[in-house]
What we know:
The protein has 755 residues and is α+β, with helices and mostly antiparallel strands. The chain is built from 16 helices and 44 strands. The chain starts with 8 loop residues before the first helix and ends with a helix.
Amino acid sequence: MADRLHLPRLLRVTAVSVVLTIVAAVGIVRLVGPPSTASVTPLLPDRIEVGERARGTYRVGEHTVLIAADGITISHPASPRAVWASPRGRAFLVAATGTVDTPEPRGMLRLSEHIEEVFGEQTVEGADVDTTGRLVITGLLGNEESDERLEYQVFVATSGRRTGGLDIDVAVLEEVDRLSLVSELDPGELVHGLGAQFSDFDLRGRAYPLIPRAQGVGRGAQPLSLLVDLVLGAAGAADTTGAPLPHVVTSAPRSMWVHGPDVVVADLRQDDRLAMTVWGEEMQVSMAVGATPAAHVAAHAAAEGVPRRVPEWVGTGLVLGVSDGATEVRERLALLREADVDVTAVWLSDWAGLRPVPFGDGPGLAATVDETRYPDLAGLVDDLAEDDIRVLTTASPMVSPDAAHDGARDLWEEAVEAGWLVLDEEGEPYVVEVSGVRVGWVDLFDPDAQSWYARVLAEEALGSGAAGLVALDGEGPPLDAVTAAGPVEDLRRAYPTRWAATTRRALELAGLGQDGLTVHTAVGPGTAGEAGLLRAGDQLVDFSHTDGLASGLDGLLAGGVSGLTRSHVDIGASTTVALPGPLPDLLRSEELIVRSAELSAFTSMMRSAPGTRPDLGASITDDGVLDHLAGLVGLFAALADERGRLDRGFDSRALPLVRHPVLVVPEQPEVAYQPEVFFLGEDLFVAPVLEEGATDRRVTLPIGVWVDIWTGEEVEVSRTTVEEETVAAPLGRPPAWARAGSAVADDLDRWRQDR
């Protein structure tokens, strides 16, 4: 396996010409910016006319709705700025008809939208409060090039979702397939969230199709992304993520989220407005009320639900990822034991074998044990249990006709015979070739298929005594596929939630209850309430914000704003890249493994990834890693009580464990918007090192008295002494401070004394 490079033969034969093409193209890409996997057309609002009969001030609960000649403003006494405002003098509703091409070659979903007709002129003709207390706004949407007019209705009501805010329902009474609600943004108003986004924390300047998609390799990093796209069509870009959510919080602060399974596009390409577009003719939106961004995040989480409690054992040590069979498990555990690294579980990423993925190998799709790698899986599980070490296996909703092990159960044949696969337009199983392997999807919208696959996972993936599943590939089938519940285009955002429910049911069937764990990457509406832990992406083995370690922190922070309360990053990242010709390889270093372990120590889980090429680059059991790993795992375990306190607080105020500073100190902008820092809860401030080769970093501490977690030294910061300073950050000791007098400061004081 060591000399295998999963790139097409043609690439290897013509490496020189490809390299020359890349050299020329990279110059162009650097001028015009990274590629995008989506081309979505902005639905621009035209003029608005508000009739005399509609103008006035209306009360909806405690909200005041002012309808004036140039638009609408909604206010609430608990919010310092308007809860919502339409763009001045422009329509706040736009309807359209259109189509979208959705080629999904080799697993990467791409979008090319074609708008046919736009209704961007708006009149507001009526506004009345009905007997239920709802404000009903009516009018017409028009197209300046035709005489056609569309009737619309907007219902504004006090929220029934425990937000203290509003629910706004929009309907167009004619046949359209795009409906956009346009909101005004103030000058300098920053926009955050939209799920686990791996770009800047301020989302302005881009359009984001909120469809769960494979994250891709490189995501704009050059020349890698260009090479991957030219040959594999799998580069991804700044708009690709498996965990998008149509929820934003702004610095004003105000918030908005869209309900339902329809595709949503968030368009922030215009500085003065946000357009949330649903691919449908109806739209349901909620808005929260609060004086801080944290209040808006908590309101959203209270309405949408928070993840299930994580078993206590997760917080006691390292979850070791392996991909080379039972022998590797025992050898690596021996090395970790000798280095005093506490291991709580082993993730057998290869328990069902391996399959080719871009630039290496990934978990197989047989969904049955590969007995050549694990000839006695139950015995291995029992042996590890004697040392209080659990086993996790891997699960995927994709099955393959190419994956069955000799003499083993053939799940493809079972699914085809029962009619439990997602279909193409001809009624045949929808098959896509990904890295040379044919794959299809279990139709999780068919209750019988979902029940069958939950039993499969309980019997096969968990049947030998495993404690949980790392659930991959949940983004969903291609948009032109068909399920038992209808076209995937109408349901793609809901597929990750069905997948999370399937894995949860598998845990129940296996008798694991609250002690079982699922780890998910893909997210849809309600996934957070079904899943256990969420994994913030699938990064390259470098430090970049494009697709490396720094992007993992970006995903943690953006996802936390959108209700993804318990997330983590892979230790060591995942994708190693060995390139042909003179192009440099991208190999995992000991420094990257240690720095990613430092970041993981302050999250919900410490889990190492074997990676796509574990035979190349550094390993978690290399001496240079083991020198630091025991201390970092010990720090992670010392924070278990703090994570427990934060978990218990979810019932009254559901905020993420890993918090962007704007959720903790919004009144201190010099702290809240400095790059690459975060809080664990409210009392632990962390400044991770995300730059290769760095041994110190610049940081501005929040106001208060802070205790250095490594030395115990106190630092007092007042309003007059806030300033950026350089702090030491040697490998294995990420800068971090606990708030003096806090419970976590006491926890870390005991840990420091016991070291």
